[in-house]
Amino acid sequence: MSNYVWLVPLFPLIGFLINGLLWKRMPKTLGGIIGTVAILASFCVSLGIFFEVKDPSFHGPVIVNLFDFIRSGKMYIPFSFQVDALSALFLLIITGVGFLIHVYSTSYMHHDEGMVKYFAYLNLFVFSMLLLVLGANYLIMFIGWEGVGLCSYLLIGFWFKNRDYTNAAKKAFVMNRIGDLGFLVGMLLVFFNFGTLTYQDFFGQLTGGHALVTSSTYNWIAMCFFIGATGKSAQIPLYTWLPDAMAGPTPVSALIHAATMVTAGIYMIARSNALYSITPMILHVVAIIGLATAIIAATIAMRQYDIKKVLAYSTVSQLGFMFLALGVGAYTTAVFHVMTHAFFKALLFLGSGSVIHSMGGEQDIRKMGGLGKKMRITQWTFLIGCLAISGIPGLSGFFSKDEILARVFSHDPVLYALGILAAMMTAFYMFRLYFLTFTGSFRGTEEQGHHLHESPAAMTIPLVILAILSVVGGYVGLPEVMSEHNAIATYLSPVITNFGDFHLAAGTEWMLMGISVAVSVLMIIVAYNVNKKPNFVENTGLAKILENKWYVDELYDAIVVRPIEMLSNLLDKYAERRGIDGVVNGVGKTVRWGGDRLRLLQSGQVGFYIFIMVMGIVVLFTLSFFWIK
Questions:
Q1: d(CA 373, CA 583)
Q2: Fewer CB in 10 Å around end: N or C, the chain?
Q3: pLDDT per residue over 521-564, tens digit each?
Q4: DSSP code at position 239
Q5: Can you tell me the distance from the alpha carbon of 310 to that of 106, in angstroms, rounded to the nearest whole number?
């Protein structure tokens, strides 16, 4: 089956081409079916690959060379795919969650006139994401990396008639390009120092040692890759694009900004674990940035009122947890949290889409309340998502979050304490969102109240499936005190393993679990009491700062955007208009002025022409006379 891995990205590509070329003439329902079936076909092939890799007889990785991509002198880069445990797991996440979101979109986008084009963009995104995780070298990864950035721009600004949405799309595109430059420089450093971009060749030289490469070079490469990851995975300082990306349709938020695209940075670092394991200084930077992102995003989420903005900052915070895990060398644990997060965060985003659909487009949770009476399926599935992300025992988020915190505790108790703080805030803002949305009395308009209804089956069935996965998904990674067999760690062990010594006494691990659960339950109770009878008054002090997102956007606007705009205006006025345009226009004006004068010589009088001819002959004789001498 692995030899047919090229079929996995091929199906979405075909779906994109059909819908993209025929979107003006194709019926909306047919476009949705084509886009959805394409992802389903990819999922079926991915499932076969997953079980093949899982088989003990599999000896990987398997490299599938499709054709020679670049061959110039010493540079040889094949267009090839690498099939191993890590890529196979991500294939399942991308195509599985992607398929459910496509099914959901067939109903959510049914009344949109651009529905077929929307499915073309979704298929192109999935194709690009599959290239990213399947590439056997950094260049193929980079092609997919840029592809998902393009699709993110297209999908965030899908409703392009709204100026704010197009600005959000441009913001995402520009901030991702900043990070992408770091990734590109890192690739150039790898090729310049190691003569290859292929994973196996590069990692082989790392483990075997490279006499001509210093430790600082390794650090620079790892840092450049991490800069790329901060852009794509929304870490400090390149995180502000992700909340604004909620301008796109809600299924886009679920697919791109919760389950797949934003995890590209985690995938890249996990794939490059051989590099990061020999650069402990950069790993420490990764941990600090991840923890800071988790805390800052969580504080902001506590005072947001847009249902999708709360989930957006929650995503940023959870990505921070994943980078914190990577920073302490827990690569397998980070990937485990990627998987569980894909389940419950896609569930939460799609649940919010169901709410928005029922509310007629309203996203302000201050105008909701009591929706659980009319939307039972959405309420219960959303509650499961909230419980999972809060780390309540028995659900997927408990196992992955607990493993992250345990690894962090063994690495540095101070980081652990700060991680617990972020986990506490997670439980608070998620249940604040739940209680304000689904409990209490309805606070919207009478018209909205009459419109309230449960979403159609095409939207609720994916919610139920994701809710089930959010419950059972964590049992593939049981902690050591519960089971000696950690299925996901065993599965990923041929590709990535947790770095460094890690062993906690059983009592210590039970204590850490108890602390984590206790603080989460406490915050749920606090959220219930605070929001039992909500009184929405204008925020002041720290609450006002959090509502305005620590004024980070305003700070960036003041120190980056406005100075660049001023410089651009100066260059436009003086360098462009008076300099370049002045020279070009000056040459044109000079030629025209000269032409206006020379045309006066064409008077039409024969006598004048004879006079000019005689004068020319005299000048030529005079010059000849002097030259002869």
A1: 72
A2: C
A3: 999 999 999 888 887 888 888 889 998 888 998 999 999 889 99
A4: -
A5: 25
Neighbours of 208 (CB within 10 A): 7
Number of alpha carbons in the 13 Å side-chain half-sphere of residue 54: 12
Q: What is the DSSP letter of 549?
A: G
Q: Which residue is it, tokens 């090839």?
A: 80
User: CB under 8 Å to 398, separation ≥6 — which residues?
Assistant: 388, 391, 392, 474, 517
What does the DSSP 8-state code read for residue 371?
G
Task: Assess contact for 311 and 352: CB atoms under 8 A.
Answer: yes
Q: What is the DSSP letter of 6?
A: T
- Tokens at 27, concatenated: 């019926």
Cα separation, 418 vs 256, whole angstroms: 28
- Tokens representing 207 are 């483990």
User: At residue 137, what are phi and psi to the nearest 5 degrees?
Assistant: -150, 165
pLDDT at 506: 84
CA distance 282 to 223: 6
Whether 169 contacts 157, CB under 8 Å: yes
Round to whole Å and give the CA distance between 392 and 552: 32
Neighbours of 580 (CB within 10 A): 11
- The whole-number pLDDT of residue 501 equals 62
User: Residue for token digits 């304000």?
Assistant: 436
Residues across the chain = 629
- 3-class state of residue 213 by DSSP: coil
80: helix, strand or coil: strand
Residues paired with 354 in a beta bridge: none
Instruction: Look up tokens 């990627």; give the residue.
Output: 338
62 SS3 class:
strand
91 with 48: CB under 8 angstroms? Answer: no
Element (H, E) at 82: strand 75-83
What the block records as the tokens of 573 is 């006025």
Position 605, amino acid? Q
From CA 200, how far away is CA 515, in angstroms rounded? Answer: 42
Say what the pTM is: 0.89
Residue type, 6: W
> How many CB atoms are located within 10 Å of the residue 359 CB?
22
Map residue 391 onto helix, strand or coil: coil
The DSSP string of 139-192 is HHHHHHHHHHHHHHHHHHTSSTTSHHHHHHHHHHHHHHHHHHHHHHHHHHHHHH
- Residues 230 and 242: their CA atoms lie apart, in Å, by 12
Spell out a b/e string for 335-356, using b for 16 or more CB atoms within 10 Å of the CB, else e: bbbbbbbbbbbbbbbbbbbbbb
CA–CA separation, 484 vs 506, rounded Å? 12
Helices 396-411 and 331-358 pack at an angle, to 10 degrees, of: 140
Rounded to 5 degrees, φ, ψ at 617 are: -65, -40
pLDDT tier, 211 (very low <50, low <70, confident <90, very high otherwise) = low
> CB–CB of 40/100 below 8 Å?
no
Structure tokens at 242: 């992700």
Please name the residues in contact with 125: beta carbons below 8 A apart, sequence gap of 6 or more.
147, 148, 151, 152, 155, 255, 256, 260, 261
* Contact present, 342 and 263 (Cβ < 8 Å): yes
